[in-house]
Amino acid sequence: MVKNNGGIKKLSDFIGFFIESLPKLLDGLYLTILLTFISLALGLILGLLLALGRVYGKTIISGICAGYIEIIRGTPLLVQLFIIYFGFPQAGISLEPLTAALIGLSLNSGAYQAEYLRGSIQSIESGQMVAARSLGMTKIKAIRNIILPQALRISIPAWSNELIYLVKYTSIAYIIQVRELTAEGKFIAAHSFRYIEIFAIIAIIYLVLTFIFTEIIDRVEKKLSIPGIGTIKRLEQRFI
Amino acid sequence: MLIESLPQLFEGLKITLGLTILSLLLGSVLGILMAVGRVYGKKPLVFFIYIYEKTLRGIPLLVIFFLIYFGLSQIGINFDPFTAAVLGLGLRSTAYQAQIYRSAINSIPTGQMIAARSMGMSKLKAIRYIILPQVLRLSIPGWSNELTIVLKDTSIAFSIGVIDLMRQGRYIYSVNHELVLQVLLIIALIYFALVFSINKGLNYLEKKYKMTGFEIEIER
Amino acid sequence: MNMLKVENIHKIYGKTKVLAGVSFTMEKGETKVIIGPSGTGKSTLLRCINQLSPPDKGRVWLEGIEVTDKKTDINLIRQKIGFVFQEFNLFNHLTAVKNVSIALEKVKKMEKEEAHKEAMNELKRVGLKDQADQYPSQLSGGQKQRVGIARALAMNPVIILFDEPTSALDPELIGDVLEVMKSLAGEISMLVVTHEMGFARNVADEIIFMEHGVIAECGNPDKMFKNPEKKRTKEFLGKISSLYGEE
Ligand SMILES: Nc1ncnc2c1ncn2[C@@H]1O[C@H](COP(=O)(O)OP(=O)(O)O)[C@@H](O)[C@H]1O
Ligand SMILES: [Mg+2]
Predict the structure, then answer these.
(1) B54 to A207: CB separation less than 8 angstroms, yes or no
(2) pLDDT of residue A61
(3) A99, C51, C185, C237: which could form a disulfide with A95 (CB 3.0–4.6 Å)?
(4) Residue B109: which pLDDT band, with cuts at 50, 70 and 90?
(5) Which residue of C107, C135, C137 is in closest CB contact with A137?
(6) Rounded average pLDDT over B28-32
(7) Which helix (DSSP H) or strand (DSSP E) does residue B106 occupy?
(8) Model confidence pLDDT, tens digit, residues C192-223
(9) What is the mean pLDDT of chain A?
(10) Spelled out in words, what is the top-level CATH class assigned to the domain B2-208?
């Protein structure tokens, strides 16, 4: 009986603590989601430009795009964020933590998305480009109407990987003082000394987030699927 | 000034490399065990491994670090930052490596197991002498990818106070403010050179140990 | 003025001289068939005509406009030159009718409804009204190729170039495609690379025999089949006829 009461007390105590922390956690969650989606969207635009530059660009353009992709993929995200947040001010560019994080994550994600997109573009038979040109389409029209609609569909699973990657790696923004989910957790824990509880809660929030996002993208993928157009298998390029 | 700080960065580099190697080792050993467990094990074990993989792949490394370093010390288990980082990186890498080895195991025709057993090998012997040698070769591409990811992510150990490349850099530029950008660029260059040569080296290995009649077909 | 004039076309890939001076002309409504061993440059010749592979030397005119002139808007010319590919090259993300209408919308700037109506008409013409909403992967090879023909026809070209349009098809599917092509003869100019001797004999106004990057011999089907001037022509036609039959 006594033991049981103790258990209930612990549980209600935990629930109280959870409810108390909730507003702060929600603030952090909001920033995490914001960071994720903006970097995903900006990264997509950048990734598209880089992929098109690599595949269709002249040697110099193609080389520049390849170089950018290699450099970003060859260095840690944290170093990139540090260069933008701590390094840029030396060159006269001072950025707010959130802005720095958004720029860093987008520049980073762009390089990875470029690689997925390039794979998709190159998986489309060259004959379709030839056929489009034979109908009088300019190269740009052919890319826009024939190649990209297919390449983007083919990339959806890879794109879902990228989303999951970003959800998790936005946490690094904490290190440059962005108060996203992990940062809020750290502050709460530092005051209450309840590290296990708070980080267990946060771990669960991340798990739920990744689960929901994966589900949504799977739905989108099904909805947009076209008979005969496969999607490249889930890539393990980055952590899923 | 910049030249003088190079030895200090080198100290950090040693820690970074140590972190990488130890966590990869931990991840390889546990990863192989988990892969074998998930393919050949009984239901409860398979389920446990499944949950383990999902969880460690679903939460940020930073949160894993905080749980191990701060969380465990709350219940009296204290690690120094370096050990905590090795555990965090290693346990997470386990989840990813398990997946690499598992898909390699699954790509080996079942006939090979049957053939080994028909020669009188025990299941364990068959796994040890027939399946694993093939699995390891097939896993090289996935593994090289994992190696560079772990190397890059050691930088996150900065957040729990490991004195790695990142933090040594921080020490240098917090004294010499005007060197921030230069020091960070040198650090970036070091990481890049490492990742680049690892990729080149493992590509070479992959070609050298490519089994004839075996296409390396791991989803990448 | 000839409708199409091809003059002294040369094309070199690396060190191999693929085309070494090809010249011929075509009139409105004419059907010409090009035959010849593989690797002779037949596909290259077709691609030189609509500049998918610009020739290294030589000139091409369509309806009096010089196609090979760098100042000519090639995308305008290509609308007048249909191209049907051996491998169909359909757009995999578009239904049959969209495959036909996309260039009408994006190149000819037609309204969506009008383009759709036009595309449906072309699909009817090739006997694929019922397959309009299917994706390429849901069509048979013969159906795919007929969509390919409808796609070329929709642009209202003055000539269509066919590059071995039935070579990738199972034998039982070839007939439908040849039927469609036959029905076009006379209405529209056709330049057809094919090994189908029945089609060559019954439909072509002229047969061009190419070898080693040049026209070895040409003439009407009667002459080519019965009294070719060159021994090689006779040999080749004999070999091809026994391989592919004559319907
Ligand atoms: N894009 C190209 N690059 C290099 N060589 C080519 C290319 N296209 C064709 N060739 C070469 O030109 C020759 C003629 O090819 P092709 O025109 O396809 O012949 P055919 O259609 O008569 O079989 C072949 O030897 C082929 O290898
Ligand atoms: Mg050909």
Answers:
(1) yes
(2) 96
(3) A99
(4) confident
(5) C107
(6) 95
(7) helix B81-106
(8) 999 999 999 999 999 999 999 999 999 999 99
(9) 90
(10) mainly alpha
Residue A79's pLDDT is 97
**Structural domain that includes position A72:** 42-180
Look at residue A37 and tell me if it is in a domain: no
Contact of A185 with chain B, judged by CB distance below 8 Å, is answered with: yes
Give chain B's largest Cα–Cα span.
Answer: 71
| Ligand 1 surroundings by CB, under 6 angstroms | C 13, 16, 18, 38-44
Token pair, residue C80, equals 């007048």
Residue B193, min C-alpha distance to chain A (Å): 8
Do the domain assignments include residue A101?
A: yes
Handedness of CA B173, B176, B177, B179 (dihedral sign): negative
Residue C98's CB: how many other CB atoms inside 10 A?
17
**Residue B48 pLDDT:** 95
A126 contacts in chain C (CB < 8 Å): none
**C-alpha span between A104 and C75 (Å, rounded):** 41
Query: In the structure, what pLDDT confidence band is assigned to residue A228 with cuts at 50, 70 and 90?
Result: confident
Averaged pLDDT, A140-169: 93
Looking at residue A4, what is its pLDDT?
60
CA A229, CA A150: separation in Å to the nearest integer? Answer: 8
Chains near B (3 or more Cβ pairs under 8 Å): A
Instruction: Look up the pTM and report it.
Output: 0.86
Burial grade of B210 (CB within 10 A; 0-12, 13-18, 19 or more): middle
Q: What is the pLDDT of residue B208?
A: 76
User: How do strand C214-219 and strand C206-211 relate by DSSP bridges?
Assistant: antiparallel
Distance B71 CA to ligand 1 centre (A): 68
From the list A164, A182, A211, the residue facing B62 with the nearest CB is A182
pLDDT at C63 over 50: yes
Whether chain B lies against chain C with 3 or more Cβ pairs closer than 8 A is no
C4-244 has CATH 3.40.50.300 classification: yes
pLDDT of residue A127: 93
pLDDT range class, residue B210, cuts 50, 70, 90: low
Do residues A106 and A43 touch, judged by C-beta distance below 8 A?
Answer: yes
Record: contact B66-A91, CB cut-off 8 A = no
Question: How many angstroms separate the alpha carbon of residue C153 from the centre of ligand 1?
Answer: 26
**Separation between Cα atoms, residue A81 and residue B166, nearest integer Å:** 12
With an 8 Å Cβ cutoff, the interface of chain C facing chain A consists of: 50, 52, 75-79, 81-83, 85, 87-93, 102-103, 106-107, 135-138, 151-152, 155
Reading the block at residue C132, the tokens are: 């309009």
**Does the pLDDT value for residue A145 go beyond 80?**
yes
Residue A81: both structure tokens together: 């964020």
Q: Is the pLDDT of residue B213 over 50?
A: no
- Report the residue of chain A nearest B176, measured CA to CA: A90
Domain ranges (residues) in chain B: 2-208
Q: How far, in Å, from the CA of C79 to the mean position of ligand 1?
A: 24
| Cross-chain CB nearest to C106 (options A145, A153, A226) | A145
The CATH number of the domain where A140 resides is what? Answer: 1.10.3720.10
β-strands C189-193, C4-13 pairing? unpaired
Q: Which of C12, C19, C33, C44 best tests ligand 1's pocket when mutated (most atoms within 8 Å of CB)?
A: C44
Predicted confidence band of residue B211 (pLDDT cuts 50, 70, 90): low
Work out how many domains chain A is built from and give that number.
Answer: 1
